[in-house]
Specification:
alpha/beta, four-stranded parallel sheet, ArsR family transcriptional regulator, Ptyr_pPase, arsenical resistance, Ptyr_pPase_sf
Length: 137
Amino acid sequence: MTSVLFVCHSNSVCSPIAEALLNHLAADRYRVMSAGVQPQTLDANALAALRKLNVNTSGLESKNLDAVADEYFDIVISLCDQAEAAAQAVPATRYMAWHFNDAPCCSEADATKMTQEIYERIKLLVLVQDRQEKNLW
């Protein structure tokens, strides 16, 4: 099972969205967590956008990087400029940077757009990981 950590500054918008979407698509193959440099309350519009897609949001909570300090991850993905250095300090095999605007969503439409953008990246991540893990010969 591949372990993935999504890191953003506030752990209120991008990283919880990414965590929920990857769990929705491939929880059977991934152990997924998210954390933030300075966690804030989960964004209500982000949660609404996920629920609109029938993505389970139970168990999502904003947490600090200290909550994952004893973990080792296969992949750590920073989701904003402000979190990239902190993400690279987490023990992992690979690091990626997908930079989004990690500001609270002003409207449900903004949150829906952000969710769709992250969803496209998540689908690519799963596709690439699946291809790397398959023995083609």
